Write a sequence for this structure.
């Protein structure tokens, strides 16, 4: 899949919701691996996420909110970002 613009919408222990713009080329229940670059102030954290697409809520033909059920994260990077957020 090509690079698409994503915005962090919300996060809980086993899910992340992303606002994806510029094309959603997958469906509910598809496995998904992505690299998310969180930027907060001048701090950038890059995290690889793997999971299953739980829900897609389109708000136009190419964009929408995607809920991803995450596989277990063993990396402290996401915790670090959330502590900044």
């Amino acid at each position: 899949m090509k690079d698409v613009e994503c915005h962090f919408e919300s996060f809980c222990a086993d899910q992340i919701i992303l606002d994806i713009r510029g094309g959603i080329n997958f469906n509910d229940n598809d496995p998904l691996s992505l690299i998310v670059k969180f930027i907060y102030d001048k701090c950038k954290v890059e995290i690889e996420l793997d999971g299953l697409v739980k829900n897609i809520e389109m708000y136009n033909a190419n964009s929408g909110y995607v809920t991803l059920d995450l596989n277990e994260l063993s990396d402290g990077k996401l915790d670090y970002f959330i502590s900044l957020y």
Remarks:
- Residues 24 and 85 are 26 Å apart (CA to CA).
